[in-house]
Amino acid sequence: MTNQTRKNFSLQMLLFELRNITGNPYVHLFGVAMPILMSYIVIRAISADVTDPDILITASTSVFLGMGSIIPMAIALLGYAATRAQEMEKGIPERLELFGLSSVITLRNRIVAELLFILTIFILYFVYGSLFLEIGSPAFSGIVAYTVCMLILTVIFLCIAHAIATILKKFGPTYCIVMILYFAMMLFSGMMGLSYDSMPAGIQTVARLLPLTYINKDIYTIWSGESYRFASMIQAYLLWSVVAGILLVATSKHKHN
Question: What residues does each domain of the chain span?
Answer without folding.
Answer: 3-256
